[in-house]
Amino acid sequence: MCAKRREGRRSVANAEHGVRGSVATDTETRAGTARIVLWVIVAALAVRQMAVVLRQPPGERLTDLETWTGENGVLRVTGSLYDTDRFTGTPFAGLVLKPLGAAAEEALGIAWTTVSLLLVVALGIVVARALPSPVGRRTALFAAPAAIALLMVSLPVRNALHLGQTSILPVLLVLVGLLAVRDHRAQGVLVGIAAALQPPVLLFAVLLWLTGRRRAALTGGATFALLTAVAWAAMPHDSWTYWIHHVAGAGLGERPDGLANQSLHGALLRLGLEGPLEITVLLVLAAAVAVTGLRRAARYARDGQLLLAVSVTGCVAVVVSPTTWQHQLLWVLLAVVGRVGKRASDRLVWPAVVVLVLTLPGTMLLPNMAALHPVRDNVVLLAALGAACAVPFLPRTSPYWLEPVPTDYARPVPARWSRVPLLPFWRRVLTRPNLLLELLLIRVVYSAYAKVRLAARAGRPTAEEHGRQVHSLERWLHIDVEHWFNHQVAGIGWMRDFFDYYYSTFHFIIPLTILGVLYVRRPADYRWARSTIGFATLLALVGFWLYPLAPPRLMPGLGFIDTVHGVQDFSQPDYGTLTSVTNQYAAMPSLHFGWSLWCGLMILMLAPKAWMKPLGLLHPLFTICAIVGTGNHWVLDAAGGAFVVSLGFLLTHVLAGPRRLLRPEGDGTPVAGSAEPPPADARPLAGSVGGTAASAGAGTARE
């Protein structure tokens, strides 16, 4: 009997071990597959970057190296490096590049781009290996390909590849010297070489001094001085031009007050300061930034966050340098490794800000409003200033370093379709999401929507043919009321003014107002509502792309009156006001009506007072009258808008479940989202749906 019991226990243990082993094997297989996919993405990005550079005509690629190009297409080495303003490197950089004088231009383009991409790969690998410990297994697997992919798509790398700049090499030399090399003398030599190529990098010698590596700091300064002296002896005229005439290269390149110069000097010039006043303000601010930033960098280095210390020092160099062009901004991107925030829900804010700032132009991050122009024009500088002086990066000794405060996830009502699994990463939170992250998300998505909408063009004949199809279908359905109603509106002054104003004003104001109210008053409903309108907008882009449609006001021969834009000249190939800045044929579906219908449904479902609910339906009613009365849409466009909004609600329901949530006690009674999270003792247990999701989220954050 005892032998049978032992055999039974052994069988159970073997079965449990087999199940665990199978789960572990599946997890490893999925991780390996994801890693392979990431490396494939890296390879695709590298091929794309090379193709983008090499497909450019000779006069438009590697333009900074073109200063060396002679009449026969071979690099020249005679004359001054600074005969034109294109070459902005140091004389030592020119001396290093002189051996390329024997290379033909086509071969140089291929070799230069290939070597630059290899440097980016090496940079990503060094960064991945320098992440502060402890590093989770998944992070270790995915860090290198993720870092390389991020570098590939960043504006500094793309700009350096396009111009043929050497700005990737100094960053790599500094990272290898400070993160991978142990010998202090070798560290100083690498920093000195990097400073000879890019003088602001000499600030890293100060970092070495502050962190106790004084021999490395002195070696770095001596190496910089020696290489600069060698370049001066070999090219005295160029050295005089660079160091004296152009004040260490500050007078080279584009205008220093241009948007390309993201240094403190450039920002002060753009603000209108000039002359002795500007120089005085610059020196005072630069000294304050240097002292604050280098002290912070030394503190992070002593804390074991050496990669963050390198990034902070690089950000100081970006700020205090007289000129910091786009290809010299990689230091800011490295600041993504810093951890900010005690709550898990806030951890993504700083990385998202850095990635968006270093991958997208400022016009996509902020609206085109005069009051925001100083911020938009200096957004990279502000990110560098924040990293150097202000952002409260967590020390590794913080109790929140590995275990931030977990997010409180809502328990959704089970979906009606039991076979459709809800996506675990689409969980809603009971507390408000981070406002800055939400604003960035909304702005970037809208900017991408506007660009895709503008790009979805198919030409005037196709759009007019589709317009005739829609008009014929409406006549067959006996709903072709557009012409009659358009002329009625145009003939009554007050009605025309009202619908013109309503069409051009309330399209954005009311949806943003509803999202704002939900964010403040009903945070558990906010993400659900935002997802529905987001999906509807993305689906509308598919309609714009597949079915370009001329609105009634742009249909020749039908006699419609454009009450908003005025009389159209149909004899012109590209007629229509604003044709050059927006796609006039993005009419099907009508997002004017779709968004207004979404607003009406949100008010109908969520308004606290019964009398408010029917008032919400007045907005879509007025909107359909406005879009038809002004000649901007067909009736079927409104039907298309209603269709994509319905699909938006359906997709959100499938991904996140119904809008209503279960009470925290789990009593099964549905409740709408509330403004405050439930008390700690009322949260779901770990075995429940919400508890499992929260545990998974906390585990991901710890990873």
Describe this structure as you would to a colleague:
With 703 residues, the protein is mostly helical. 62% of the residues lie in helices and 1% in strands. The chain contains 28 helices and two strands. Strands 1-2 form a two-stranded antiparallel sheet. The relative contact order is 0.07. Residues 69-77, 576-581 and 673-703 have low confidence and may be disordered.
In short:
This protein has 703 residues and is mainly alpha-helical. The protein contains 28 helices and two strands.
What are the defining features of this structure?
two-stranded antiparallel ribbon; 703 residues; 62% helix; mainly alpha
Secondary-structure content class: mainly alpha
- Mean pLDDT figure: 80
**Percentage beta strand:** under 5%
- Radius of gyration over all CA atoms, rounded: 30 Å
Number of helices: 28
Identify the strand order in the major beta sheet: 1-2
Strand tally: 2
> Which regions have little confidence, pLDDT < 50, spanning 5+ residues?
69-77, 576-581, 673-703
Order of helices and strands: HHHHHHHHHHHHHHHHHHHHHHHHHHHEEH
What share of the residues lie within helices?
Answer: 55-70%
The biggest sheet, with number of strands, parallel, antiparallel or mixed sense and barrel status, is: 2 strands, antiparallel
